[in-house]
Design brief:
With 227 residues, this protein is an alpha+beta fold. Strands 1, 2, 3, 4, 5, 6, 7 and 8 form an 8-stranded antiparallel beta sheet that branches. β6 and β7 form a beta hairpin. It is rod-shaped and about 100 Å long.
Length: 227
């Protein structure tokens, strides 16, 4: 007996219409009709459900339907191949996300790394009150500038998207090279310190466009301004 005939026989013996039978296995009436007319087959998991639901062994369902048995055999043999493809795709996706994360982190650290370089290259660093513009502190000798860089500890700053509007800027750092202030073509134009050293931002320029990047910091303001 072919599988389609077996399904039709089981259905009719239970007094079920094709629609009622279809509802049991969450398929359409047309699907059941296709099964019974040998136009398509149930998948293996549905066959197991039919077997369990009506207490009919798979042996009885498949006995004599050599095409179906052959088809199932092929699908089972292909499973390792499909699993291999899925595992490969998962590995590719994980690698892609890792690359994107690493690349994004690299881009976000570019400003910070360049700022660290520029601060270490400065011949003079002046710190101004953000609101009044008053000069608070000035460092011109190498040892003082090294101390400022140690206090800033830029290497350990963590990038954040935004700084809360309730957190106010308190100091601006101006960098000087040779005897003149940085010009408009320099990448870092200024660094702003916020809320007792808890946050800082760099304003950078690239191809005539400005970009502000914010960081979570741990700057000792007392040491920085020498008070």
């Amino acid at each position: 007996m072919q599988l389609g005939q077996a399904i039709a026989q089981i259905r009719k013996e239970r007094g079920l219409t094709q629609e009622a039978f279809a509802k049991i296995f969450s398929v359409t009436r047309q699907t059941v009709s296709n099964w019974e007319n040998e136009k398509s087959y149930p998948d293996l998991s549905t066959l197991v459900k039919i077997s369990d639901e009506f207490n009919v062994s798979l042996d009885v369902l498949l006995k004599g339907d050599f095409r179906m048995v052959k088809d199932i055999d092929k699908k089972i043999k292909k499973q390792p191949f499909y699993i291999g493809i899925i595992i490969g795709l998962v590995i590719i996706v994980v690698a892609l996300f890792s690359f994107i994360y690493a690349n994004d982190k690299s881009i976000s650290d570019t400003t910070k790394d360049y700022a660290d370089f520029k601060l270490n290259s400065a011949l003079s660093i002046e710190i101004y009150d953000f609101q009044s513009g008053e000069l608070i502190a000035k460092y011109e000798d190498e040892s003082s500038i090294d101390k400022v860089n140690t206090i800033l500890d830029i290497e350990n700053w963590e990038r954040v998207e935004n700084i809360d509007k309730d957190i106010n800027p308190i100091y601006t750092l101006e960098l000087y090279y040779n005897t003149t202030k940085q010009d408009a073509n320099d990448d870092i134009q200024e660094s702003t310190i916020y809320s007792n050293g808890e946050y800082a931002s760099f304003f950078t320029t690239s191809s005539g466009m400005g970009l502000k990047q914010n960081y979570k910091t741990n700057i000792d303001i007392t040491e920085l301004i020498g008070k």
